[in-house]
Structure formats: structure tokens, C-alpha cells
């Protein structure tokens, strides 16, 4: 049997899937690591812990492959976007991995927005101005951590660091580069204006390569531990969001992919770069010929977890005693409440927000709470609030690329029947759930197969996705959601003037953060 591995270096874990060449899943591994929040706004990871997760993941999954009687064709990579590591002249880390969720560069994002520089840079780079971007993180290092900035000889993200450590190559795929905020998506090169602003030179950045680029010759110290054939290539791949679209076969015009995992996103693929005049959505590369337009949200499953842990501790304990999934129990409770939660709205901005408001100071809130509302109303309102927010991203996307032809939904929420139906009802669109497992890993594997000549076109992914299940919107819920969504949107706009004030108060009186496992 012949094999292909798709590996996704994510924010809280690295996942690897072993496929045969028909896209069937043969083995799966998921290696966790902590997210460090030692200070207000911090969201960092240890690059050595991630390297260990990659090595251990490959080692474990290759034990399931019969390499004596079969062939491993390659390992292809997905990774989270917008991570930054500063390195010294010997490529040794001067920082941990500063992830997309880190908001300490908020001050510099606000400055770029205020003086108009940000709008011009967005029009070059397709990356909305937000502390997530390498543009803002580099300004933060330059101004607030000059000692590190002066020592830094190189900068990269987590995937580039892993490739350097394993293979001694210094390169970044065009997909990851396009999400940095310092890459010109029209010139397909590092943006001169962005670099001039940060003071970083092209010599300090990795070489930009196509996602199909192959690298061989793993360092002996890792090849021996993993049991990895040194002549087998690593394929550079792309960033996880773009590969998730590919992994659910949402690469045709008008096919929208909605993903809710820890965070979430709404994305569609086009054949050319697209800029939103209002700056609400991003435009990143999948390949140099395919571009992903969409909006990421900070607040997906992480908000559901917050509600479970802080509002439903008793139910969480009960589920554990019954050996049931606590989230399933909460969705059963939410089902008992009518659509619209009897007028209770929830803004899910517990971690600031990216699309469509791009405000790191945004904060969560319940609105409309009365004595008649119960915790059951609150949990349904939480779930609806997450979907309302995704719907506002879709509305922005429609203005830029047109109305969707179909919607594909994936992520941890997709296994919940209530969430699937809620998504269909609020979007007023049929929602299709593909069977494909770990869509970013599958997308990475498909990129690898195309690179290696094992398939002719990326559209061949449709052979690997498997069966689909489509949910139709319930017309009985339309009127309720049509009334509530405009209130939800107006509220977020009206509260925006106070988000900064309350955020500043919280920062002033902040307690030390903690590590999240």
C-alpha cells in the first residue's frame, strides 16, 4: 500500500493523518501543547514543544504504515497563520511563538488605522490591520522590546521554523506569507512599504516558495528517531484555513466554507486577489492561482467551553459521572429553548474579535436579560451569538464576492445536529456537512499529491471528501432571526465606542495570565 501524510501544526495541537492514495484515513494522531498567557494580551507557545509534537506525531503515525511493503510518498503541511518567532544569527529563538491570538500589538494596530497608513497597507497586502499580523507584531517588538528587535537576525512563523530544524531549509510558502501583512498580494513579494515601516529587510525573512515546493534530506538526528526515509519529500503546503476549504471541496466559485473549531471562519475561493473597500475581510493565497477571501473570528468553540465551565459546572460533573459528552448535554438543554432565546442576545467577543469588526478591545455581553430567562436560555443564546457573528462575516463577504451558491460546514461544532440546523436557519441557506476528516490535513495531503504528480488537479479532492449530509433551513425560524440579527449588528456598532474604555479598565486592573493546556 502507498501512503500520504497530511500534518496540521495548529494553535493548541499538531495533528497528523495517514492516508492511502484514495484518501482513506488509515491512522490519526493529535499531540497537544500549552498556550502561554503569562501577561495581559499574551498568547504564546514554545517552539521546542511544537517541534517535539511534530516529531512524535510523525513517529507515531509512521508505525501504522507498512514501509517494507508500501511506499510513503510524502508529508505535506498545514499550519496556523500569523505566528512570529524572532531568531538570532544562528537561527536560535529569541522569543516563543507569538501566535495570531496575541493582542499586545493593539496600540500599533490602532495607530495604523488612525493615520490612514493601515488602509493603504491593507490594499497592498489583503491583511486587515489587527494585532494578529506580523506587521503589527514587528512594530511592537521594535518599539516595546528593542533589545530583542536589535538582536534579531531573522523572523519566521512556526512552519518555517519546523522546516529549518528538520530539513535545514529557510523558506515560507506563498499562502503563509500572504497572511503576514508584509506581503504584497499583487506583486507576489514582500511589500516594500510594510518592510520600511517595520525596519525589517528581506534578508531577515525566509525565501518565498510555492506551496508545491518539495524538500528532502531530513537531519539525521530526527530521521533516526522518527524512522523517516531521508529521500521522502516534505511538501510546503499552505495555511490551515485555505487548506480547510480545499479539504471540504469548497474551491469552486461561490462555494462557501464555514468552520467552527476553537475559533472560526467563513471563506470562499476566487481565481484572483480581491480587496474589500471597507477592510472587513482578508485575501490570502491558497496557491498563486487560487485566493481565499473571508473572515476569521476569534470566538467559536472556545466560547462554548467558557459557558460550560463557568455557567454549567453541575451539568459538566453530571455528564462526567454518566460518561457522556458534556457539550452534548448542553445542546440538549439548549434545544428546549425556542429559536431566538426569547429575545436574549449574546455577543461572543470574549477574546476581542477579528472579522468583521477587527477590534481587539471588543468584549462579550448578554443583552435583553430578564427574570424570565434561565441558564437554558443563556446557553442557547451563546450558541446563537457565535452563529450570528459568523453570519455578519458572510454578509460582508457577499458584498465583496457575491451571494454564495452553496455552504459547506466543518469543525467540532459540525457534529452537533442543533448547531447544523441553527446555522442553516440563521443563514437561510442549505448547509452541507462533508464527511471528510480533519479538513486541513486532507487539504495538505491533496496539495502534496498534486505536487508529486499523484493527482492531476486540486479538484480531485472531491473523490476523497466522502458522503455529505445537507440540512435545510426551517422557515418557522426565519422571522425570529430576521428580527434579531439587525439588533445584534446595531448593538455591536453602538457598543464599539465603549469597548476601548472597558478594555483599558481591565488592562489597568489586570491580574497575571495563566498557561492554558
TrEMBL record:
<dbReference type="InterPro" id="IPR018485">
    <property type="entry name" value="FGGY_C"/>
</dbReference>
<dbReference type="InterPro" id="IPR018484">
    <property type="entry name" value="FGGY_N"/>
</dbReference>
<keyword id="KW-0418">Kinase</keyword>
<dbReference type="InterPro" id="IPR018483">
    <property type="entry name" value="Carb_kinase_FGGY_CS"/>
</dbReference>
<feature type="domain" description="Carbohydrate kinase FGGY N-terminal">
    <location>
        <begin position="3"/>
        <end position="247"/>
    </location>
</feature>
<keyword id="KW-0808">Transferase</keyword>
<dbReference type="InterPro" id="IPR043129">
    <property type="entry name" value="ATPase_NBD"/>
</dbReference>
<dbReference type="Pfam" id="PF02782">
    <property type="entry name" value="FGGY_C"/>
</dbReference>
<dbReference type="Pfam" id="PF00370">
    <property type="entry name" value="FGGY_N"/>
</dbReference>
<protein>
    <submittedName>
        <fullName>Gluconokinase</fullName>
        <ecNumber>2.7.1.12</ecNumber>
    </submittedName>
</protein>
<dbReference type="InterPro" id="IPR006002">
    <property type="entry name" value="Gluconate_kinase"/>
</dbReference>
<feature type="domain" description="Carbohydrate kinase FGGY C-terminal">
    <location>
        <begin position="257"/>
        <end position="450"/>
    </location>
</feature>
<comment type="similarity">
    <text>Belongs to the FGGY kinase family.</text>
</comment>
<dbReference type="GO" id="GO:0046316">
    <property type="term" value="F:gluconokinase activity"/>
</dbReference>
<dbReference type="InterPro" id="IPR050406">
    <property type="entry name" value="FGGY_Carb_Kinase"/>
</dbReference>
<dbReference type="InterPro" id="IPR000577">
    <property type="entry name" value="Carb_kinase_FGGY"/>
</dbReference>
Amino acid at each position: 500500500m502507498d501512503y500520504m501524510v497530511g500534518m496540521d501544526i495548529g494553535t493548541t495541537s499538531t495533528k497528523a493523518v495517514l492516508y492511502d492514495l484514495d484518501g482513506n484515513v488509515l491512522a490519526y494522531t493529535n499531540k497537544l501543547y500549552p498556550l502561554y498567557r503569562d501577561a495581559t494580551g499574551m498568547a504564546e507557545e514554545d517552539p521546542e514543544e511544537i517541534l517535539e509534537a511534530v516529531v512524535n506525531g510523525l513517529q507515531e503515525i509512521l508505525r501504522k504504515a507498512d514501509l517494507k511493503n508500501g511506499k510513503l510518498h510524502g508529508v505535506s503541511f498545514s499550519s496556523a497563520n500569523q505566528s512570529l518567532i524572532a531568531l538570532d544569527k544562528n537561527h536560535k529563538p529569541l522569543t516563543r511563538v507569538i501566535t495570531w491570538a496575541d493582542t499586545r500589538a493593539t496600540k500599533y494596530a490602532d495607530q495604523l488605522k488612525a493615520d490612514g497608513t493601515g488602509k493603504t497597507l491593507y490594499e497592498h497586502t489583503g491583511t486587515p490591520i489587527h494585532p494578529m499580523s506580523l506587521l503589527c507584531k514587528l512594530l511592537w517588538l521594535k518599539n516595546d522590546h528593542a533589545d530583542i528587535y536589535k538582536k534579531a537576525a531573522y523572523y519566521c512563523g512556526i512552519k518555517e521554523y519546523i522546516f529549518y530544524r528538520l530539513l535545514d531549509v529557510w523558506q515560507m510558502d506563498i499562502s503563509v506569507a500572504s497572511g503576514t501583512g508584509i506581503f504584497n498580494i499583487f506583486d507576489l513579494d514582500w511589500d516594500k512599504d510594510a518592510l520600511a515601516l517595520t525596519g525589517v529587510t528581506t534578508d531577515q525573512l525566509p525565501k518565498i516558495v510555492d506551496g508545491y515546493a518539495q524538500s528532502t534530506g531530513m537531519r539525521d538526528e530526527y530521521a533516526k528517531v522518527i524512522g523517516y526515509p531521508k529521500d521522502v519529500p516534505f511538501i510546503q503546503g499552505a495555511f490551515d484555513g485555505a487548506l480547510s476549504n480545499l479539504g471540504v471541496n469548497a474551491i469552486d466559485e461561490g462555494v462557501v466554507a464555514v468552520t467552527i473549531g476553537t475559533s472560526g471562519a467563513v471563506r470562499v475561493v476566487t481565481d484572483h486577489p480581491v480587496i474589500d473597500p471597507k477592510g472587513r475581510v482578508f485575501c490570502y493565497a491558497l496557491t498563486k492561482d487560487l485566493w481565499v477571501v473571508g473572515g476569521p473570528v476569534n470566538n467559536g468553540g472556545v466560547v462554548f467551553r467558557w459557558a460550560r465551565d463557568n455557567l454549567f459546572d453541575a451539568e459538566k460533573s453530571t455528564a462526567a459521572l454518566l460518561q457522556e459528552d458534556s457539550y452534548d448535554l448542553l445542546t440538549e438543554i439548549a434545544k428546549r429553548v425556542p429559536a431566538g432565546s426569547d429575545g436574549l442576545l449574546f455577543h461572543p467577543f470574549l477574546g476581542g474579535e477579528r472579522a468583521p469588526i477587527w477590534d481587539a478591545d471588543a468584549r462579550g455581553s448578554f443583552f435583553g436579560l430578564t427574570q424570565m430567562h434561565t441558564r437554558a436560555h443563556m446557553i442557547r443564546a451563546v450558541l446563537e451569538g457565535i452563529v450570528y457573528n459568523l453570519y455578519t462575516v458572510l454578509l460582508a463577504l457577499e458584498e465583496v464576492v457575491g451571494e454564495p451558491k452553496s455552504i459547506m460546514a466543518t469543525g467540532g461544532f459540525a457534529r452537533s445536529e442543533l448547531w447544523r440546523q441553527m446555522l442553516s436557519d440563521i443563514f437561510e441557506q442549505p448547509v452541507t456537512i462533508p464527511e471528510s476528516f480533519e479538513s486541513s490535513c486532507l487539504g495538505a495531503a491533496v496539495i502534496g499529491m498534486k505536487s508529486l504528480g499523484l493527482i492531476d488537479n486540486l479538484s480531485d479532492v472531491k473523490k476523497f471528501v466522502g458522503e455529505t449530509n445537507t440540512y435545510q433551513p426551517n422557515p418557522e425560524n426565519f422571522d425570529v432571526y430576521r428580527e434579531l440579527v439587525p439588533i445584534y449588528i446595531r448593538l455591536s456598532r453602538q457598543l464599539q465606542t465603549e469597548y476601548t474604555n472597558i478594555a483599558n479598565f481591565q488592562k489597568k486592573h489586570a491580574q497575571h495570565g495563566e498557561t492554558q493546556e
